Amino acid sequence: MREENPEAAYWNETGGERWVENIDRLETMLAVMNRHLLERAAPQVGERVLDIGCGGGVTSAAFADAVGASGHVDGADISAVILDVARARYADRGNLNFITADAGVHPFTPGTCDLITSRFGVMFFPEPTNAFANLLRAGRSGGRLVFLCWRSLPENPWMGEPAAAAFSVLPRPEKPDPDAPGPFSLADPEKIQRILDAAGFRDITLTPIDEMLNLGEFAAALDFMTKMGPTAEPLKEAPPELRDAAIEAMRAAMAARVTPEGLIMPAATWLVEASIA
Question: Nearest 5°: phi and psi at 139?
């Protein structure tokens, strides 16, 4: 009997709740990335699209607009908590459906999708090769895979700098297993190539995308960074004096990035493309 994906509990409890609490800030921050994904995926009128890890549904809705009434989009996410937001926001879209599912094992209808896509939703598979092979089965011959994933933590100061500052005060956690599910599990381009090739995808290409993310007003952005990402649990568990000192260290590190337009920090991703034979 297949064991439940351990990510499911996190994204349906603490992780999902935190995401929903911060969803407007997250979507505003990541909007600059949506443009890259949509331009490269190039959804066409009448196509069927599968959007993996669709979260609050912003990308799914954009794909639904592009494929029109003759097309269809399924947004899949493991978090029922987050999908409640998506369903409420986009209930009026007749060509858009949301599926609560572990996309790595869900029995999608075989051979039906012209485009399989994701904005930061494919880094959390416990068995990525098997998961991508499962997605491949959903694609039709001649279809395509296009997704965004984060490059390494050092290349992403928007997350790395606040974390480094916090862990200059708090005990530093053990270095995560690079093969464990997580936001940077697909940072290694050779690993992506190996996984997709073994899963059965062809014509695999990776394009580096560098952007500046606007995290918004400084005080709110600082609060956001204490509740999301690698510092959230250590800060929650720290004694008050250490917690306060760590947040002050984060404040000092992030202050250098403040502009009149907001807190703006660099981000680095891979835009990955592959074809379905």
Answer: -85, 150
- Rounded CA gap, 156 and 198, in Å? 28
**Tokens 């992403």 found at:** 156
Contact call for residues 60 and 51 (beta carbons, < 8 A): yes
Can you tell me whether residue 45 is helix, strand or coil? coil
The rounded radius of gyration (Å) of the Cα atoms in the chain is 19
CA gap 119, 73 in Å, rounded: 15
What is d(CA 113, CA 177) in angstroms, rounded to the nearest whole number? 33
Start-to-end C-alpha separation, the chain: 31
Question: Is 199:138 a contact under the CB 8 Å cutoff?
Answer: no
Question: Using one digit for the tens of pLDDT, what is the confidence trace for 147-173?
Answer: 999 999 999 999 999 999 999 999 988
Specify the DSSP class assigned to residue 69. Answer: T
Within 10 A of 208 (CB to CB), how many other CB atoms are there? Answer: 11
